[in-house]
UniProtKB/TrEMBL annotation:
The chain crosses the membrane at residues 38-59. Belongs to the LapA family. The keyword Membrane applies. InterPro entries: LapA, LapA_dom. One of its GO terms (cellular component) is plasma membrane. Involved in the assembly of lipopolysaccharide (LPS). This is Probable lipopolysaccharide assembly protein A. Keywords: Cell inner membrane, Cell membrane, Membrane, Transmembrane, Transmembrane helix. The keyword Cell membrane applies. It holds the Pfam family LapA_dom.
Amino acid sequence: MKIIKIVAVIALFLIALALGSQNQTTVNFNYLLAQGDFHLSSLLGVVFVSGFGLAWLVFGNMHMRSQLKIHRLKKQLNKQSKQVAAATKA
């Protein structure tokens, strides 16, 4: 199943690359301090990659926090279960 997902993502990337290469219209882009003329395909590619990277950082950070919390809770559970087992033996 994982291989199918990877193949689908690669196929979508190649289709987007083929369609983007056909769109070489120059657009005027006004950003915060200045403006510039860019190819539309390049501009869309840069914005997509930067958005993907930002999302990867945000959700990766959230995932790491949750994994650390799970690890701490499992450690706490093991400690408490050992205390209960020791109390029941006594």
